[in-house]
Amino acid sequence: MSNAHTHLPPGVEIIATLPDAASRIAVGTEARTILVTLQPGDPGAPPHRHPGPLFGYVTQGEILFELEGQPPRVLKAGDAVFEPGGDVIHYQGANNLPDAQSQLVVTMFAPAGSPVLTVVGAEELAERQHLRAPRP
Questions:
Q1: pTM
Q2: Could you give the CA distance from residue 136 to residue 118 in angstroms, rounded to a whole number?
Q3: Bridge partners, 67 (sequence order)
Q4: Bridge partners of residue 96, in order along the sequence
Q5: Is residue 104 helix, strand or coil?
Q6: How would you class 94 by CB atoms within 10 Å of its CB: exposed for 0-12, middle for 13-18, buried for 19 or more?
Q7: 49 φ, ψ to 5°?
Q8: What is the rounded distance in angstroms from the CA atom of residue 58 to the CA atom of residue 20?
């Protein structure tokens, strides 16, 4: 983090930074701020991909998060998340709590009019199984 962040006003806190973020955002994209609310035990969307990178944080609860090439991990309120979008498969984004709501806010950069997510079919999942990190 640069020195520019050392003198922030009271109540302003940098939660996470993403170096070189601009290099990941294609020309002509729009920014979308998306609120994802998962009810207790909600498994989230099936395996999918996003049209562009996203960056955000968990505002409430716990989310079981798994991205292609990374082991599953639990993100808790206050944890940041980055996803490169494009070809990378987002396997899980489930509420890890059976008795409480979980929520995250992300900003996605994507071509105007593109879907927020595209579900990945069973055949492609099987073809890319070798790219999925081993699970405990």
A1: 0.83
A2: 27
A3: 90
A4: none
A5: strand
A6: buried
A7: -135, 160
A8: 22
Q: Write the DSSP assignment of 30-53 as a string of letters.
A: EEEEEEEEE-TT---SPSEE-SS-
Condensed to tens digits (0 to 9), the pLDDT of residues 99-125 reads 999 999 999 999 999 999 999 999 999
Please state, in angstroms and rounded to a whole number, the distance separating the CA atoms of residues 25 and 110.
Answer: 8
d(Cα 104, Cα 66) in Å, to the nearest integer? 15
Q: What share of the chain is helix, strand, coil (3-state, %, to 5)?
A: 10, 40, 50
Asked whether the CA dihedral 119, 35, 92, 89 is positive or negative, the reply is positive
| Helix (H) or strand (E) run with residue 124 in it | helix 122-127
pLDDT tens sequence across 82-97:
999 999 999 999 999 9
In angstroms, the CA 62 to CA 97 distance is 6
* Residue bearing tokens 């995250």: 104
Show Cβ contacts of residue 120 under 8 Å, excluding neighbours closer than 6 positions: 46, 47, 48, 49, 89
